[in-house]
């Protein structure tokens, strides 16, 4: 029994007439008009299209993947036979070939009906109009009406055939998609390890290659039928004109191969251009997420130039691609009149006077030949790309999967826990490094801690327990279900609840216990949608501590027997770490076997056993005692003890539900790509401009004169084409009385009519070339000008802009939207103009020749507008649903591959394979309904076209004596074009309107994004605030805060000494946000070392943002060497400061481009000297991978300025690297004024002074030793919170530093 209508899995196509007329789409059309959006999950499709069996209620339906898998398995077996080569195409052909061939039969039917209409019905009706009374079938009046009815039915049937072909190709294409996605994920999700390049290739298969295979399935029948259609038309012309068609055959034989050549060339250019597009996208993907760093370094112009260089190559290829298309279109549309010319001239000179039955039957046949010739290059491109994708996919599916694991997963019922005895392991990719474990065991109810230095082999031990290491010797056994927290937290772009439950059944009590034990309760109160808040891509919406705790909650909720925690407490503060250890590890995991990798030494006494690792060897396993403590003391330096104290991250405060929005604390993180707070969504909607505005921007950037000229050439080319058709009518009727008598040949008269016809055809061709050239000039110029302005604006936008506009959306604007503006949109507008004018000219021509048809022209226009009115909302909604569902599928595959170790540890491979199949079905349902909507439109447009054919035929029969054969012939040769092109006109109009969404986004960025140095206000369309509310509540115009910028040349030596003064500084991230800095005043003397401390959100990092003018001040001023920084240009200011950021970013390129992108240092010796200072000389000489943190040091060292800022610079480093970096900083930057934003107190305890921040206010500013002498100071309390041992060590370091300074001062 099937699913109910409206539920996933139901088949909406049941019923013959429902399927024939696509009436199942009315539900979606109505819903889209009412709601604007459609839910892909509630859409249905035929049962055979599903990959996910549980979705459907058709128990007997053999699913797409099941059918394909058995055939592919047979192919794979051929590898074992001599000379056998498996073929993916053959497996697909065996599975779906017969059904797909049926689509070819319908395409053949379309060809038959359209040629029958053009040849038999047009010719017979013209013979009837001519009044031939020779007793043949079409000679009687009754036969005329029968021919009219037959022509109408023929016109309707040819439309039905094309729709059936489209439906079959679509369903087969969807089944192929379902089968291949399932096949790819079945293999990918079971890989033991996955390389970065392998992961990228698998994601590309799902996101791109399988779509190309689907597109190829839609287009393939056009490719192979085109030559047969051309041959059939030529054969009929041969029958009609005998030898006269031979010159025409020559023209066709010249043009048809050209279509394949043009198609091939376009494919080659597109493949070459894809590399440039990928290169441009890669730069943008590096730059936009790191935009804060780019602004710190003032490198905006460099990256703008780099992107422009790549874009120049891309534009060159775009130009040649467009030239090919223009010549191709001109050839295709010039074939009918040019071939007709040579046939007509040959016919008149060799055979007899040209008559209407010959002339207009010939024109009709050639007019229908245009359609297969137009789609041929597109079909060739689609099939070529599909073939290349199939080859890549086949290679991947045949690739041998590595099978090295340390143990075979135990059967259910094995004893929980693990035991290793004399184990020696190596990593599958590095057999030279060994892990030696003489003895290790953990049983239910025990907690075993694993400790040691960075790189000692702690995580490798966890990987050995997970089965990801190759065992060489020894015995190991692992039993029970496993749960695992990785060292680097892994999250899906789902709600926090879904991340925690991880496919397990819902248990509210267990869930609440888990949330409390993992200290997530307060976080869920703060997050905008509680546990329904999205984690974002790679957990971007959460802090590092939150990401780790959600991973821990997932582990706890799984309720497994063996719990593996790889450094699970490293990113949480001291208080939270103790809460988790007590409530989660010792309580929730009380009956579990727990392995805890940690640096927190204070937990050792509470563990049952301790495993101490060093250089890949387990040097101690047993109880925590004095011997273990002494051994560990030798291995770990004091910095590890301070690491154990945790970061400064304080427990989050719950959000006040009744407080004003203004009071909310705003953190400076780039806007997430998945969800945002309501204010962000509002801003996104306000930021968009209307379609009319974007159209004028698009036109303006292309130049109004060029656009006007293009429009005139469009009109001129179609006008010349229509006049040439009228000229044939006058030629047949001898309008200018050149022939001596009716039916008598005359060479002079033939030359008169033929030469003028040739002139008109020549003009048509020339106008088409000019039409294409001006159109090409317009769209390429417009696209490039908009891109240039948009990129310049975004790179130079205020940081406030990036808080509102998600970086993911901006990347889509500059990649996907830009590609649409370069190719898809120009193609849609071009063909909309061509086909639209053909349709308009057809209706005008028929209305002029048959006056009464004018009434039907009005009805046609009304029906066209009605079709667009009905079609557009549903098409837009389905396109959106298709993109969103497809994005979720690709996102799932990328996420699972990134977290494959976690998925395997939890034994969730089958769950995610099924989830991928489920998401594939949702995507395919959206694809099915989107294509069905196009077919629904085609059904009604073809029906309207058939009715118009019937109307013209009725006029021809009823008014044959009044109209005459030449008039009727002209009407028929034109109306038959409507059958072929009417649906496409409506489709291209709709597609052009839909694709203009891309222009809207880019046009907004190019015209309405302000530059740095203004107060950003997302509520204003141009982004510039009109007024500012001061701290005292006074509202002042934003223009009153603008400072006069001094001449850069006057500040050549600025800054010279590096003293910094903050005077009553007030700053906010957004105009509707709380003040992030409140009246901050302090002074830093030349060469002084100052550390800034405080809880998360206290404002310590904001002081750097204010210094760099990432945000303008609401009140107060900042002086550097006595100069108000608001009077400097941003480039001058930022190049006068140096910074070492928290996250090191290495941009693609050379070492030189990463250090000196503008080439300011011509002497290589300077660069080598800097590399030597920071310890990178050897790495650079050997062209090895450079250490990112050290590159950032080198950048700062190269910029010889007296001020250095450290923005939590060593937070992401392991202790060993941190020690190197800290030593280098002390050695290289000793004479600079240094501001250090602290992530741990030991990094600033030896500073000259400490800034203590709280809620944006400066609470304390004094030397550390002075603050520590008073136990009541905030700084002293922060030190005490790190734990007794760590606090004592910190106080000792501060005292020693103070004593050292005092000694130096006395000298």
UniProtKB/TrEMBL annotation:
Compartment list: Vacuole membrane
Q: Keywords for this entry?
A: ATP-binding, Membrane, Nucleotide-binding, Repeat, Transmembrane, Transmembrane helix, Transport
Q: What single Pfam family name could you report for this chain, choosing any that match?
A: ABC_membrane
Domain of life from the UniProt record: Eukaryota
Q: Name one GO cellular component term.
A: vacuolar membrane
Q: Which residues form the ABC transmembrane type-1 domain?
A: 102-385, 708-994
Q: Which SMART domains match?
A: AAA
Looking up PROSITE patterns in the UniProt record yields: ABC_TM1F, ABC_TRANSPORTER_1, ABC_TRANSPORTER_2
- InterPro entries named in the record: AAA+_ATPase, ABC1_TM_dom, ABC1_TM_sf, ABC_transporter-like_ATP-bd, ABC_transporter-like_CS, ABC_transporter_C-like, ABCC_6TM_D1, ABCC_6TM_D2
What membrane topology is annotated for this entry? Multi-pass membrane protein
Q: Which GO terms describe its molecular function?
A: ABC-type transporter activity; ATP binding; ATP hydrolysis activity
Annotated ABC transporter domain residues:
419-640, 1060-1280
CDD domains given for it? ABC_6TM_ABCC_D1 (cd18579), ABC_6TM_ABCC_D2 (cd18580), ABCC_MRP_domain1 (cd03250), ABCC_MRP_domain2 (cd03244)
Q: Kindly give the Gene3D superfamilies that the UniProt entry links to this protein.
A: ABC transporter type 1, transmembrane domain, P-loop containing nucleotide triphosphate hydrolases
Q: Which residues cross the membrane?
A: 100-122, 142-162, 220-240, 246-267, 326-347, 353-376, 695-716, 752-778, 790-808, 828-846, 853-872, 935-956, 963-985
So what family is this one in?
Belongs to the ABC transporter superfamily. ABCC family. Conjugate transporter (TC 3.A.1.208) subfamily.
What's the name of the protein? Answer: Multidrug resistance-associated protein 1
The organism encoding this protein is Tetrabaena socialis
């Amino acid at each position: 029994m099937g699913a109910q209508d409206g539920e996933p899995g139901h088949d909406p196509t049941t019923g013959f007439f429902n399927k024939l007329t696509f009436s199942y789409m009315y539900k979606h059309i109505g819903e889209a008009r009412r709601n604007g959006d459609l839910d892909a999950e509630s859409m249905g499709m035929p049962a055979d299209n599903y990959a996910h069996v549980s979705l459907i209620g058709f128990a007997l339906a053999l699913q797409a993947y099941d059918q394909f898998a058995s055939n592919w398995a047979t192919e794979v077996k051929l590898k074992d036979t001599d000379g056998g080569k498996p073929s993916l195409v053959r497996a697909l052909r065996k599975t779906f070939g017969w059904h797909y061939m049926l689509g070819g039969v319908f395409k053949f039917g379309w060809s038959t009906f359209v040629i029958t209409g053009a040849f038999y019905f047009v010719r017979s009706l013209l013979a009837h109009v001519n009044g031939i009374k020779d007793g043949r079938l079409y000679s009687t009046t009754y036969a005329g009406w029968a021919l009219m009815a037959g022509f109408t039915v023929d016109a309707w049937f040819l439309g039905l055939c094309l729709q059936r072909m489209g439906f079959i190709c679509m369903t087969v294409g969807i089944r192929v998609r379902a089968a291949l996605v399932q096949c790819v994920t079945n293999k990918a999700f079971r890989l033991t390890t996955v390389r970065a390049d392998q992961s990228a290739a698998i994601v590309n298969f799902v996101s791109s290659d399988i779509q190309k295979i689907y597109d190829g399935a839609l287009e393939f029948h056009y490719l192979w039928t085109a030559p047969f259609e051309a041959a059939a038309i030529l054969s009929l012309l041969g029958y009609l004109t005998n030898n006269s068609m031979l010159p025409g055959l020559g023209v066709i034989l010249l043009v048809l191969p050209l279509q394949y050549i043009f198609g091939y060339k376009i494919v080659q250019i597109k493949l070459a251009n894809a590399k440039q597009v990928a290169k441009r996208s890669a730069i943008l993907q590096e730059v936009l997420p790191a935009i804060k760093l780019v602004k710190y370094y003032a490198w905006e112009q460099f990256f703008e130039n780099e992107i422009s260089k790549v874009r120049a190559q891309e534009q060159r290829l775009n130009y040649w691609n467009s030239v090919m298309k223009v010549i191709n279109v001109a050839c295709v549309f010039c074939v009918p009149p040019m071939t007709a010319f040579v046939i007509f001239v040959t016919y008149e000179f060799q055979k007899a006077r040209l008559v209407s039955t010959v002339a207009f039957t010939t024109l009709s046949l050639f007019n229908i030949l245009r359609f297969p010739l137009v789609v041929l290059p597109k079909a060739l491109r689609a099939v070529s790309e599909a073939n290349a994708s199939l080859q890549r996919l086949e290679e991947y599916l045949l690739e041998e999967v590595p099978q090295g694991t340390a143990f075979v997963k135990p059967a259910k019922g094995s004893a929980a826990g693990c035991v290793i005895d004399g184990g020696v392991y190596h990593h599958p990719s590095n057999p030279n490094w060994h892990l030696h474990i003489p003895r290790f065991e953990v049983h239910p109810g025990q907690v075993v801690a694993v400790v040691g230095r960075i790189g000692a082999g702690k995580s490798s031990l966890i990987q050995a327990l997970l089965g990801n290491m190759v065992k060489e010797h020894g015995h190991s056994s692992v039993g029970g279900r496993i749960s695992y927290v990785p060292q680097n937290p892994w999250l899906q772009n789902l709600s926090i609840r879904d991340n925690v439950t991880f496919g397990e059944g819902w248990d509210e009590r267990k869930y609440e216990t888990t949330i409390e034990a993992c200290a997530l309760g307060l976080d869920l109160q703060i997050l905008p949608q509680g546990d329904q808040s999205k984690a974002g891509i790679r957990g971007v919406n959460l802090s590092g501590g939150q990401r780790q705790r959600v991973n821990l909650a997932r582990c706890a909720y799984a309720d497994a027997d063996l719990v593996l925690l790889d450094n699970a407490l490293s990113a949480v503060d001291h208080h939270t770490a103790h809460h988790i250890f007590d409530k989660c590890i010792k309580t929730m995991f009380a009956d579990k076997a727990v392995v805890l990798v940690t640096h927190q030494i204070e937990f050792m006494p509470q563990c049952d056993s301790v495993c101490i690792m060093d250089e890949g060897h387990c040097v101690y396993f047993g109880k925590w005692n004095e011997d273990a403590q002494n051994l560990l003391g030798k291995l770990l330096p004091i910095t590890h003890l301070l690491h154990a104290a945790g970061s400064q991250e304080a427990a989050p405060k719950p959000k006040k539900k009744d407080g004003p929005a203004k009071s909310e604390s705003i953190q400076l993180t780039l806007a997430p790509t998945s969800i945002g707070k309501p204010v962000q969504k509002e801003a996104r909607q306000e930021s968009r401009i209307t379609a009319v505005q974007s159209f004028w921007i698009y036109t303006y950037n292309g130049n109004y004169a060029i656009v006007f000229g293009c429009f005139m050439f469009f009109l001129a080319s179609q006008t010349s084409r229509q006049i040439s058709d009228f000229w044939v009518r006058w030629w047949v009727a001898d309008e200018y009385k050149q022939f001596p008598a009716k039916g008598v040949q005359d060479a002079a008269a033939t030359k008169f009519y033929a030469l003028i016809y040739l002139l008109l055809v020549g003009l048509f061709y020339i106008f088409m070339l000019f039409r294409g050239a001006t159109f090409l000039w317009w769209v390429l110029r417009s696209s490039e000008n908009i891109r240039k302005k948009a990129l310049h604006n975004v790179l130079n936008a205020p940081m406030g802009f990036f808080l509102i506009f998600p970086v993911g959306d901006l990347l889509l604007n500059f990649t996907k939207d830009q590609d649409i503006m370069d190719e898809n949109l120009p193609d849609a507008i071009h063909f909309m103009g061509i086909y639209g004018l053909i349709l308009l000219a057809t209706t005008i021509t028929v209305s002029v020749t048959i006056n009464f048809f004018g009434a039907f022209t009005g009805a046609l226009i009304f029906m066209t507008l009605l079709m667009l009115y009905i079609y557009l909302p549903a098409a837009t909604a389905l396109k959106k649903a298709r993109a969103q569902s497809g994005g979720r599928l690709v996102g799932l595959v990328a996420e699972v591959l990134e977290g494959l170790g976690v998925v395997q540890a939890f034994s969730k491979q089958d769950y995610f394979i099924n989830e991928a199949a489920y998401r594939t079905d949702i995507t395919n349902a959206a694809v099915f309904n989107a294509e069905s909507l196009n077919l629904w439109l085609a059904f009604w447009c073809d029906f309207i076209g058939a009715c118009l054919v019937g109307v013209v035929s009725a006029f021809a029969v009823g008014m044959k004596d009044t109209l005459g054969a030449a008039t009727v012939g002209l009407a028929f040769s034109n109306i038959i074009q409507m059958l072929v092109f009417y649906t496409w006109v409506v489709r291209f109009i709709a597609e052009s309107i839909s694709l203009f969404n891309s222009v809207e986004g880019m046009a907004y960025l190019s015209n309405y994004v302000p530059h740095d140095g203004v107060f950003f206000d997302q509520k204003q369309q141009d982004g510039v605030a009109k007024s500012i509310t001061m701290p005292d509540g006074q509202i002042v115009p934003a223009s009153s805060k603008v400072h006069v910028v001094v001449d850069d040349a006057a500040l050549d030596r600025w800054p010279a000494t590096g003293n910094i003064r903050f005077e009553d500084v007030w700053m906010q991230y957004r105009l509707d946000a709380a003040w992030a800095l409140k009246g901050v005043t302090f002074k830093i003397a030349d060469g002084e070392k100052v550390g800034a401390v405080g809880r998360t959100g206290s404002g310590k990092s904001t002081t750097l943002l204010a210094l760099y003018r990432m945000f303008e001040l609401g009140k107060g001023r900042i002086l550097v060497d006595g100069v108000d920084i608001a009077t400097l240009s941003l480039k001058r200011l930022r190049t006068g400061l140096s910074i070492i950021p928290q996250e090191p970013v290495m941009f693609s390129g050379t070492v030189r481009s990463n250090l000196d992108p503008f080439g300011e240092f011509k002497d290589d010796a300077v660069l080598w000297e800097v590399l030597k200072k920071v310890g990178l000389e050897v790495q650079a000489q050997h062209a090895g991978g450079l250490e990112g943190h050290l590159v950032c040091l080198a950048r700062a060292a190269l910029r010889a300025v007296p001020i250095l800022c450290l923005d939590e610079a060593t937070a992401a480093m392991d202790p060993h690297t941190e020690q190197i970096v800290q030593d280098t900083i002390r050695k290289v930057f000793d004479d600079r004024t240094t501001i250090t934003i602290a992530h741990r107190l030991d990094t600033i305890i030896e500073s000259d002074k400490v800034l203590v921040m709280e809620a944006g206010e400066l609470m304390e500013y004094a030397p550390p030793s002075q603050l520590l002498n008073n136990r009541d100071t905030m700084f002293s309390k922060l030190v005490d919170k790190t734990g007794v041992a760590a606090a004592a060590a910190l106080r000792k370091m501060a005292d020693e530093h103070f004593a050292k300074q005092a000694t130096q001062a006395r000298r």
